[in-house]
Amino acid sequence: MSLDMAGTINHFKVIVYQDIHIGTIDLSISNTVVFMLLAIATVVILLKLAFIRAKVIPGYGQLLGEMLYEFIAKQTTLNIHQDGKDYIPLMFTMFTFILGCNLIGLLPGAFTPTSQLAVTGTLAVGMFGFAIWLRFNKHGWGFFRAFSPQGVPKVLLPLMVPIEIISFLARPVTLALRLFANMTAGHMALGVLAVLGLAAPWFLQWLPLGFTVIQIALEIMIAFIQSYIFVILSCVYIDDALAEH
Fold first, then answer.
1. Does 66 reside within a domain?
2. How many CB atoms lie within 10 A of CB 175?
């Protein structure tokens, strides 16, 4: 049996179900949109079920929900030193949305929205733009002082300022690429293992199956880690925007 490796790539193919264009604005409904909505609905339903009968002594669902919220709340206040509590709802929403999009792609026949650079790029640029707005809102034109590091000799400023600007503008790029690359690589590995399992002789098919189980466990862990890293870096950018330079 020949290996159909193209199947591992087809998992990331964007399929448009309904073309919707308003002028130059593309509002088409694709599998990316559908599975993002499914991820949102799944997160909302699970959290609603966890807290629908909230008790002083929580059950397992409520306990997990509270632990997840407390974890994100703690990380937010630890990494945003000024008014960190104000950003807990944003960070919790961001974390659960990304986590839902990461995990839903592990279901058979599902699609992973965060394997699309357009999705991760939009999230990263949106968070980066929010941080820029916060910085301008607090510091005004003093925003640009951040590109002139304190203590640097004036003769080195023509060299240092461009480096600082490039480093600053690279933030959304690295934020988007990190999430995109990890989700894509992991799901491609699962696809390859599945193809190898089908192509292997019957007495060896247990090997790819065993590796697939291990890979799925790793993918679940990576889904949590990448959601966490995205939120932590977003907190760092917001904290940097609010800090005095």
1. yes
2. 22
In eight-state DSSP terms, residue 18 is E
pLDDT tens digits for 31-64? 899 999 999 999 999 999 988 877 877 788 888 9
Structure tokens at 211: 């590796």
Is the pLDDT score of 96 beyond 90? yes
Decide if 21 is inside a domain: yes
Which domain, by its residues, includes 90? 6-242
Alpha-carbon span 179 to 233, nearest angstrom:
12
Single-letter code of the amino acid located at 193: L
Contact in structure between 216 and 109 (CB atoms under 8 Å): no
Domain count, the chain: 1
Beta bridge partners, 29, equal 18
What pLDDT does 194 receive?
Answer: 56
In a domain, 72, yes or no: yes
- pTM of structure: 0.82
